[in-house]
């Protein structure tokens, strides 16, 4: 049995949630799970349908994006995952999907405005949309640069990856992360729900105001603050 | 066996309907069922996924919002339920969800206009949207004040909770109620359908008129009036 | 065994298709099937959930809307069915739903424009929307008058119920019919699909033209004309 | 056993995917699979519900559209398939559906703009919409002419059927193709997803720009280029 069996299992289970949550069709998405002690992560093999996945065909990759174990080629987005794990110390899992509503916002190149408490339960700010990458970045090491584009976007907006666990890459699609692969998947489904409701909100009331500060703070604090009283 | 077993069962069954009716994902919603004689209600525990619910992990709470029986922390919205039960004598169940279309209207801070007989079968008026709460109310006892905001909204609009069994809380999401927890869940699903159709109606015809009085009265009366002839 | 067993079975089977085709929630809809020789039809009982239906609890009603056999009260829309059967000699089944997109068009009080061949496979004209009824008609024998409103609408637009098997009742919802109850259900599902696509078409291109005459005729003729070559 | 058993099986399997992928209701669609050596293709029989299909009731047709084997009448769109197989040497399967979003774009008579990398993973250009056919073409050999309309559309836009495997026929609906029937079905599902996201993108940002050239090339090349690194 592989010494990476635990993250292969974790990545496998998390990948299998994507079609169940209607976040992907065919092979449109990937999840990884990291082992910080070993400095590697397990990720979906490229282009393999979800029904053919097993824990054993997850690919083990290091933070430079090189395969450490596994017979299949890893996801084409592997280097983006590698960069995020390498720069952000505390995340345990990463998800990339082309889910319908979040991708539409990414294609629109707009941040998703914070319109309600569903959003505020997860973020105190608009969900950031990184601008499309420069031609130089695209023509270079593209997936590697995608990771840097995400990191730069949060930095320029003064956001902390420990608090904001989701981003749109302009013209492309969403990435989410979290303490575990399962939490990163959870965040992808929440992002899709928020993206859908934000579009509808603007359709119902084109001048709908952003959520007021008192509600933003209250909802985030009751779920994430020092005196939080949500959950067990 | 608990002396509250009957409301634990009722609350459990009603909570389990929410994901089946596509009104919630993950833990986004809660249902309670009241025992008027005992002055308590059973409510979903906070942050527990629906697949892990059992009748036994429902939490028994009194009308001041204090836990009477149960090992888990009750829903973070418990005090809102407590206020509504304490002020409204005849309701037997309450539901809170973040269902997609009803929440989008709440985020838009608009009442849902009465456009058709589907709406009139349930309400003779626009579905009210309570304004977002004042900063003072939010920073105080938030969930308790949410209950008061709902009660005030109906009062100011001259509406009777026995006839209008659904409300939107501005920037937040819907609450519904009814004679039983099952009826309150039914109302949540109906509200979601009405919210969806109202948005589509405005998209198809931005100057669609509200339903005329004769149709409003006819449909409500045939379902709820003295000479009603709907149902068995 | 009832002498009406065959239409009870037919009505039962057709009613059970409505939730499977996502055309109804709860008790929002009803189907009937007629026996022309006996001058009666079988219809869903009022307010009974689909999961509780059986062939035996279908109600047998004559063309005056009076119950001939059955312990339960028939659908509240029974008199509308009775009028249509009595005026239109060749129809064998009728369906009423509050399906989402068709109902939104009814609430918008607009005919559904013919934008494509999907529509033309079923109708050569816009799907008619009957105007809301006069207050006098509503306050009188409402469901009976609804039937007359439908008949008048087709007459005024010069349409033949043998060719146009679907209508919207303004501010209310769709009715469809056909040679059998199953065909009437089929028409309800097709209407819902056409209603959805017509809304999207206007959103994508607000000045989308109606389908040209040559295509309307070609598609309708290949499916319904003397030289039809669709189906077996 | 038929000498065409392999394409009957292939066409049957591919047809059965259409309802599973929510691309058709009732009999709204058809798939064919070709045997180049024999100069024939297997196609769905006309108007037969998917649940009644078997490999054996697929119809074998030659490139002139004449039935070679089979008791049932072939799909009414058979001559369109025949023309495409006869003109385009390397395609192995063809799909026609009336899927909701792709059909709405066809009804709108607009090409689908390339807004993101999901689109670029499949095409470097807007998805073409052929203009509605001339009255002469419609009144003549309609389905045969539909095939020519598709071929002319690609030719006039300078597109190669080996690279662009999907088209909208104005006022009608989409056609897709591929090296196998399964790949053609895959393309139909992808087209539907792209069509949905493009509509949402324009709703979120009416002035959303088309995808920049560097991203178009990068995404297409990494999946289809000489140095492709997507898949196994």
UniProtKB/TrEMBL annotation, chains A, B, C, D:
It catalyses: L-ribulose 5-phosphate = D-xylulose 5-phosphate. It is an enzyme of class 5 (isomerase). The keyword Ribosomal protein does not apply. Residues 9-199 form the Class II aldolase/adducin N-terminal domain. It comes from the Bacteria. InterPro entries: Aldolase_class_II_sugar_metab (IPR050197), Aldolase_II/adducin_N (IPR001303), Aldolase_II/adducin_N_sf (IPR036409). Its cofactor is Zn(2+). One of its GO terms (biological process) is pentose catabolic process. GO terms for cellular component: cytosol. One of its GO terms (molecular function) is aldehyde-lyase activity. Keywords: Carbohydrate metabolism, Isomerase, Metal-binding, Zinc. Its EC number is 5.1.3.4. Gene3D superfamilies: Class II aldolase/adducin N-terminal domain. Belongs to the aldolase class II family. AraD/FucA subfamily. This is L-ribulose-5-phosphate 4-epimerase.
